Recover the amino acids of this structure.
């Protein structure tokens, strides 16, 4: 591999390879965002339940 162009082309398979890597990165980022959202919602739900328990007790 003598040049950046050859590296990106990857013998004619560059679009497939880089596209696949891009999709994998997008899925990982999306999964991390979903996990963060679920964790935030769960913490909020637990906090709401504790507040309800304190007012009824």
């Amino acid at each position: 591999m003598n040049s950046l162009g050859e590296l990106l082309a990857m013998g004619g398979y560059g679009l497939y390879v880089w596209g696949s890597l891009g999709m994998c990165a997008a899925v990982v980022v999306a999964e991390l965002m979903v996990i963060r959202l679920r964790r935030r919602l769960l913490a909020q739900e637990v906090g709401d339940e504790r507040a309800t328990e304190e007012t009824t007790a």
In short: Helices lie at 4-9, 14-56.
